[in-house]
Amino acid sequence: MLGINELKIGICFKFNNQPYIVLEANHLKMGRGGAVLQTKIKNLINNSVLNRTFKPSDKFPEVELEKINASFLYNDQDNLYLMNNENYEQVSLSRKEFISKLPFLREQLEIKIIYFENQPIDIELPKKVVLKIVSAPPAIRGDTVQGNVSKKAKLETNFEIAVPLFIKEGDLIKINTETGKYVERVNK
After folding, report:
1. What is the DSSP string of 27-68?
2. What is residue 149's predicted lDDT score, i.e. its pLDDT?
């Protein structure tokens, strides 16, 4: 059982029979009263975010999440299709729950499927992914005079990203999946 002192950012626990992850945690000491923990927690099944305050007497069971290596195969209008790399079983997940991760998913990308009680509930992307630029406007002499040190480029996943002026069509770039920002150009 986890007490409020163990609820730190990134810890998974069961609350109201649902798995939650701690996004923010702040200990507060009230004047004459006891300390409380103000948290922002995210439901791992429906992705809803709650703000909750817990008392020192509150206890929570720790959640056992299983992470399985998988490969992204493809997506259609409704689902994402993944292959479990351990037993080669195909897994489909609802596409609408992973809209924020779609810009980084390319065929054969190695990811992890997160299971809760034998049900796939989420996917974990690598921290950085390499994607190809399919279109980028050419840099025009004098762009930097006006303070433009970046331009918009389109990735192979149809996502647009701000990149430095020297990036051109056909380049491979590394992108941080947590921030969605350009990291560096990758040599071919």
Report:
1. EEE-SSS-EEEEEEEEETTT--EEEEEE-TT--BPBP-EEEE
2. 79
The correct CATH number of 128-186 out of 2.60.120.620, 2.40.50.140, 3.40.980.10, 3.90.950.10 is: 2.40.50.140
Give whole-number Cα distances, 161 to 127, 131, 173, in Å.
17, 11, 11
**Rounded (5°) CA angle 126-130-136:** 140
What is the identity of the amino acid at 110?
E
Give the sign of the dihedral formed by CA 14, CA 20, CA 21, CA 23.
negative
User: Rg of the chain over CA atoms, in angstroms?
Assistant: 21
pLDDT at 144 over 60: no
CA atoms within 13 A on the CB side of 86: 7
* Token pair listed for 26: 């702040």
The domain defined by 1-63 folds into SH3 type barrels. (2.30.30)
pTM strictly above 0.70: yes
